[in-house]
Give the backbone structure.
Amino acid sequence: MTTPTPAPTHMEIQITGIRKHIAVCITETGEKECGIRSSVWDTPVPLNSWIRAHANETGHTKYKKHTEEPVNTFSKRVKASDQ
């Protein structure tokens, strides 16, 4: 008895949640970066307000904005027409 050949597949990526936005102060203070992180929001709009407030309080001038988007991967069988 022969072993059947596995069906061709390709990897799919599926977004599984809401994108999250965060900012980090990277202004060097002495020998290290400040490192203070903002709260996490579902939209990027509050980041600018947080950055302005932190800059006004500290005089810090360098920040990084990050987004995180939860995703899952799964294998999907390739259709005969796609081969």
